[in-house]
Amino acid sequence: MIEVDIDQICDLEHDLARPPVVIKIGGSTLDDARPALIEIANLWRAGWQPIVVHGGGPAINAMLERLGVVPRFINGRRVTDAATLEVVRAVLVGQINSELVRLLDGYNCAAVGLSGLDGQLVRARRAAAELGLVGLIQAVYPALIRTISRAGFVPVIAPLGLGPDDEVLNINADDVATAVATALGATALIFLSNVPGVKDDAGMLIPRLTRARAEALIATGVITGGMVPKIEGCLHALTYVESVHIVDGAMPHGICRSLMGRDHPGTCIIE
Question: Percentage of residues in the chain with pLDDT exceeding 70?
């Protein structure tokens, strides 16, 4: 275990004018999200501006299966019809978002729950006919996030968006985290997952992954499934965000270690 002194990382810049840090909590890590939430609360109390985006895939799958519906995916993206969207909204907003806010508040961290529907935060269009009510982000309007963050609260964002004629669309949480980090000019984008990071074809962790190697691993099928949109988001964000990381959500002090840059917990995506 590596010990990290929270005061040490905060002394680097204890200033609310510092660009925000966008932290995406994957749905697969939500059952054991408390260590990460404690770390987020510590960063917030120390003057940083954490912005949380969360997924909820496993919980959505569990609810659909309880209702007798078999979840369907195409290239790692959930196929979403009108009935599935009702479940998605109920789980993301009514269950997961409110629970994350409750937990952060319990760690003496003032949090506010949002979705991409609030303040027209995320505007999107339908991604593909075969995916149904799944959105492809067209714009993020971050004014509401900035207002909440500068007022001293941690925004916690569920990945939904508004489409044409204000229809509600289900959006991949990795895409929302990437778009929010890009719109805010975040100092870091950190994806917390249930895996240590990106592995090569021999199963070895890649601490520093270049764009060229990432594209090759996708092309050869080493990177597959839900990791593909995550890596694509990381590569897109590199143009706008100082550093991009994929970290095991259960790793002690994984967020702080990523921000300090002294080592690379998980995988750091670089040009």
Answer: 92
Ranges of the chain with pLDDT below 50: 1-16
C-alpha closest to that of 135 among 96, 177, 94, 176:
176
* Cα–Cα distance measured from residue 184 to residue 66, given in angstroms and rounded to the nearest whole number: 38
Domains of the chain: 6-270 (3.40.1160.10)
Q: Is 24 a catalytic residue?
A: yes
Q: Which among 26, 55, 56, 57 is annotated as catalytic?
A: 57
Rg of the chain over Cα atoms, rounded to whole angstroms, equals 18
Give the integer Cα–Cα distance in Å for 184 and 52.
13
Whether this prediction's pTM lies above 0.85 is answered by yes
- Active-site pick, 174, 197, 249, 254: 174
